[in-house]
Amino acid sequence: MLTSLLPGFRHFRTPFALGVLFAFQVWILIGEHVPSRSEAQGFIDRVYALGSVAGSAAVTAAISFLLYLVGDIVRLSSNQMMGILSRLKLPQVAPHRFATLSAQSKAALFEFASTAFKVRKDTASDDDFRKLRDEIVLEFTEIRMGLIANHLDVYLEHDRFDAEADFRLNVGFYSISLWPILAWCWTPWMLLGVFASVVLFGNGLRALRDANEILVQAIVSGIASSRVYLDEADRDFPRSSGSVTIGPRTSRR
Q1: What is the value of pTM for the model shown?
Q2: Alpha-carbon span 147 to 145, nearest angstrom
């Protein structure tokens, strides 16, 4: 039962947290301008009246749904997040800190990609291996979906790290604007909170590398198959040619 509920909670957590974060920042900025129940008129008064009729439980549920909706709209995927970082030139400044694959994963995937060139290995170059490795990385979403059907336990472990990365990356990214707002409304010392957001964002990148490490190991050990790898290997040995079989190598890790 918990196995069924936890993935859903993980994917609910990030949008809801972002919605709360946005609502908190808006409340800090304009909360003092919202009239109280005794001062409310017009539309605001009708909202208060609706809350009285529906009850506190219904109001809480409605607010929670709105917060989730706002958070789901502004939520960024890891690919979108890395696209923003690329436009800011941050991966070029510190490639190891902003990488989505660890050095070990890159090396393992590079070695695995080179095995697709069995006959052409003398004519293939490292650039060919790197190009195939990068194409396999772009295929991660498709490979991940394949794990759901064939290796659910591996998928759930990957999903746990991926959900942690999603939460930390988004909250770290969107909370950066919170600290200048608090500094303006309260004390400049709140700007120190920016470092907390940066650390949280860095933890999200680390969790993303851990999630991708699971996918890489699933590929190189044969648990999951890569379409682009098999297509490249077919150029040496078509899968229909007799008894020759092309498949991923066994991981030596």
Answers
A1: 0.83
A2: 5
Cα separation, 246 vs 238, whole angstroms = 8
**What whole-number distance in Å separates Cα of residue 61 and Cα of residue 137?**
40
Considering only CA atoms, give the Rg of the chain: 24
Closest by CA to 7, choosing from 162, 213, 151, 215, is: 162
CA angle at 188 for the pair 187 and 190, rounded to the nearest 5°: 80
With beta carbons less than 8 A apart as the criterion, state whether 113 and 132 touch.
yes
What distance in Å separates the CA atoms of residue 221 and residue 172, rounded to the nearest whole number? 34
- CA dist list (Å): 48 to 23, 26, 35, 51, 55: 18, 19, 10, 5, 11
Question: For residues 50 and 204, what is the distance between their CA atoms, to the nearest angstrom?
Answer: 40
Q: Enter the DSSP assignment of 3.
A: H
pLDDT of residue 207: 95
Residue 231: φ, ψ to 5°: -65, -40
Extract the tokens encoding 116. 């697709």
Q: What is the number of residues in the chain?
A: 253
Give the span between the Cα atoms of 73 and 76, in whole angstroms.
Answer: 9
H-helix or E-strand spanning residue 182: helix 178-185
Q: List, for residues 33-49, the tens digit of each pLDDT value.
A: 777 777 777 777 777 78
